[in-house]
């Protein structure tokens, strides 16, 4: 037996990971696993990661267009204590994300950042990309995901535009590996159109985002001009899921676990149902939609439900020329996370039903508690290497017109 | 397989944990109620750094004779290591997930010799 450490034990530098631990240390195993799987040479796109925009809220509010609201917000951010960041409604559930501190990176990332040439969020995003094995990362906000439920629709307009401008100025300019889907103030259709006009041609804007937590009908006539504009630009429209614990349908659910399981899927199930039954894919055949962060298990469920009922009640969805599931398979794209992996046969069936080889795009949701890793796609036993490469990056390259040359470095 | 020093027995108070680098591998050594346990620092979920997570007691929800619940409680006899990546919890004594015992950590061989602790990896 070869005895190592004759001069004493070699303890790991980090004995307990906490909110101060460097992202590279938290994800050290991920990097090693990505290297072991040869991902250095694969093009990998993460369609859904997050930053916590409220950490920079003092900066963001300076970009509010309305001068009165801007002044109010800036004064609030510098003087007021005891309230949440200016203008944000948030959700009760945000308090429970880390399971009482068991998952520290979900609570905060207070790690040291010495770099001063770019925004702190750029540094954190680079660290995440180079640890997870990602070449391009799409960054979404976090508490802003609830803005669609704000009682003042104009607040979504003010803050949405401020955020888009701040993103372009401070984050996207820092590293062209970071991409974004423009926040659309969807509760005010004309302002959503304005956001498409204003930000749609930015080189790091690869699409548009509706945060799904809202009660607006996606099929309302008010949105048709918006969809036409997006279709003409050739960039996809994403529906980014979120929960809303105050939703009456969740009124009896007392555990975050249950609320999160249902809430993150429910909003997209409703939007998808309306999207398909009102024939939006028939009206805008070149408009690609992407369904983000609801996992995948809901898709076969909804396909089966809609197909069965549609055949009995075709007159209620007369625009449809095909089965609902065919629109869901052929005109919609899906992101992987949180990929349900505890029932492998069901997952295999899901991949089959959504035609994952062409329609599925990897997403991590880093740094949230249920984040996924590229290795999970590499390790799937029921798809071939080409399908894995497609899901990890090539489908995204096609959909978003990205250069599929790997940019990360897993060996530094 | 090599043998790696994990320090002296006396370096460990009850409830202590030390993560030891063992070449390519990493092992977490724990002292609970006077006993030592060693687990590979690779979570059964996605190979995350499980041994570098928080140590907490198992959570229980006592049910009274009427089938009702009022408060949660900690099981003072069951120490958990909680993976910081996604929160999977494991009994430090058995290495098993409390909700599904098929989900478990990989044991590392631990030797106590002349007041010193060694792990094999
Ligand atoms: S890797 Fe440990 S909980 Fe996921």
TrEMBL record, chain A:
GO biological process: secondary metabolic process
Any one GO molecular function term: carboxy-lyase activity
Pfam families, per database record: Amidohydro_2
GO CC terms of this entry: cytoplasm
Alphabetically ordered keywords of this record: Hydrolase, Lyase
Coiled coil: none
Domain (Amidohydrolase-related): residue spans on this chain: 127-402
Entries under InterPro entries matching the protein: ACMSD, Amidohydro-rel, Metal_Hydrolase
Name of this chain's protein: Amidohydrolase
Lineage of source species: Bacteria, Pseudomonadati, Pseudomonadota, Alphaproteobacteria, Hyphomicrobiales
UniProtKB/TrEMBL annotation, chain B:
Top-level taxonomic group: Bacteria
Organism (species): Xanthobacter tagetidis
Pfam families: Rieske
Protein name: Rieske (2Fe-2S) protein
Keyword annotations: 2Fe-2S, Iron, Iron-sulfur, Metal-binding
Keyword Manganese: no
Gene3D superfamilies to which the protein is assigned, alphabetical: Rieske [2Fe-2S] iron-sulphur domain
SUPFAM superfamilies: ISP domain
CDD domains in UniProt: Rieske (cd03467)
Ranges of residues in domain Rieske: 3-119
GO molecular function, one term: 2 iron, 2 sulfur cluster binding
């Amino acid at each position: 037996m070869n005895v190592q450490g004759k001069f004493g034990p070699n303890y790991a530098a980090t004995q307990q990971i906490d909110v101060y631990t460097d992202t590279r240390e938290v994800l050290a195993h991920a990097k090693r696993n990505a290297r072991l799987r040869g991902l250095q040479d694969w093009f990998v796109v993460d369609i859904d990661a997050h930053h916590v925009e409220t950490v920079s809220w003092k900066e963001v509010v300076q970009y509010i267009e309305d001068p009165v609201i801007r002044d109010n917000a800036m004064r609030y951010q510098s003087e007021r204590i005891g309230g949440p960041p200016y203008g944000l409604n948030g959700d009760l559930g945000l308090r429970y994300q880390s399971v009482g501190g068991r998952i520290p990176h979900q609570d905060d990332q207070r790690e040291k950042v010495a770099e001063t040439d770019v925004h702190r969020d750029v540094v954190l995003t680079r660290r995440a990309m180079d640890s997870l094995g990602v070449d391009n990362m799409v960054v979404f906000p976090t508490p802003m995901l609830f803005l669609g439920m704000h009682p003042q629709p104009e607040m979504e307009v003010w803050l949405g535009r401020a955020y888009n401008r701040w993103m372009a100025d401070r984050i996207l300019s820092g590293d062209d590996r970071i991409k974004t889907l423009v926040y659309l103030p969807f509760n005010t259709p004309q302002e959503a159109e304005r956001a498409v006009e204003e930000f749609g041609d930015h080189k790091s804007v690869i699409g548009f985002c509706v945060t799904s937590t809202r009660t607006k009908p996606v099929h309302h006539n008010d949105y048709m001009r918006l969809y036409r504009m997006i279709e003409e630009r050739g960039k996809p429209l994403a529906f980014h899921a979120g929960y809303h614990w105050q939703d009456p349908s969740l009124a009896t659910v007392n555990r975050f676990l249950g609320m999160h399981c249902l809430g993150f899927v429910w909003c997209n199930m409703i939007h998808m149902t309306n999207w398909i039954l009102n024939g939006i894919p028939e009206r805008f055949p070149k408009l690609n939609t992407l369904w983000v962060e609801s996992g995948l298990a809901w898709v076969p469920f909804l396909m089966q439900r809609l197909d069965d009922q549609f055949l009995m009640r075709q007159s209620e969805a007369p625009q449809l020329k095909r089965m609902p599931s065919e629109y869901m398979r052929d005109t919609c794209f899906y992101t992987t996370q949180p990929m349900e992996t505890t029932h492998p046969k069901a997952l295999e069936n899901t991949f089959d039903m959504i035609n994952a080889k062409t329609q599925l795009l990897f997403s991590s949701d880093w740094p949230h508690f249920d984040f996924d890793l590229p290795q999970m796609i590499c390790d799937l036993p029921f798809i071939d290497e080409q399908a894995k490469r497609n899901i990890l990056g090539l489908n995204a390259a096609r959909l978003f017109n990205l250069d599929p040359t790997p940019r990360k470095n897993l060996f530094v | 397989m090599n043998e790696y020093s994990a320090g002296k027995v006396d370096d460990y108070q009850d409830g202590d944990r030390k993560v030891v680098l063992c070449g390519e591998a990493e092992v977490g050594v724990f002292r609970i109620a006077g006993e030592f346990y060693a687990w590979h620092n690779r979570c059964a979920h996605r190979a995350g750094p499980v041994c570098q997570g928080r140590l907490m007691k198992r959570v229980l929800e006592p049910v009274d004779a009427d089938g009702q619940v009022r408060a949660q409680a900690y099981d003072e006899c069951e120490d958990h290591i909680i993976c910081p990546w996604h929160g999977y919890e494991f009994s430090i004594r058995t290495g098993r997930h409390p909700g599904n015992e098929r989900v478990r950590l990989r044991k590392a061989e631990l030797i106590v010799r002349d007041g010193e602790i060694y792990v094999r990896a």
